[in-house]
Design a protein that fits this description.
- This protein is α/β, with parallel strands linked by helices.
- The chain has two domains: about 50 residues, 2,3-Dihydroxybiphenyl 1,2-Dioxygenase, domain 1 (Roll), CATH 3.10.180; about 60 residues, 2,3-Dihydroxybiphenyl 1,2-Dioxygenase, domain 1 (Roll).
- It has two helices and eight strands; from the N terminus they run βαββββαβββ.
- The model has no long low-confidence stretch (mean pLDDT about 95).
- This is VOC family protein.
- InterPro entries: Glyas_Bleomycin-R_OHBP_Dase, VOC_core.
């Protein structure tokens, strides 16, 4: 089974450009009023609306701390904090925002993940 998380957006072109150009997503499906992007096993849909849905957190996870640090350097203009360890969840993370204010989390797990 696979899935897609959809968001209404008032600025679809700017948001799609951000996810493609800054986060490495590619367009999977482009329909009238709705663009679905994918990156590895994550698919996000952005569909035209009068208001933007910004609730929740879009989390992008990496294999290493070094990759999280590199993302932080590359995304300095949208980052809202610096990378740090989160002992509660055994992760290394920082946060940022997309052009409409959706919270983005960039993280790596500090333990092995199940297969």
């Amino acid at each position: 089974m696979s899935g897609i998380v959809f968001f209404r957006t008032a600025e679809r072109e700017a948001v799609v450009d951000f996810y493609r150009e800054r986060l490495g997503f590619e367009t999977w499906v482009d329909q009238d009023g709705c663009t679905i992007l994918r990156h590895d096993d994550l698919k996000l849909g952005f569909c035209d609306g009068d208001e933007s849905e910004t609730e929740g957190i879009v989390t992008l996870y990496y294999d290493t701390r070094e990759e999280v640090d590199a993302a932080r350097e590359r995304l300095d203009d949208v980052a809202t904090d610096d990378p740090r360890e989160n002992e509660q969840y055994d992760i290394y993370q920082f946060f940022g925002e997309d052009p409409e204010g959706r919270t983005l989390e960039f993280q790596t797990f500090l333990h092995d993940l199940p297969e």
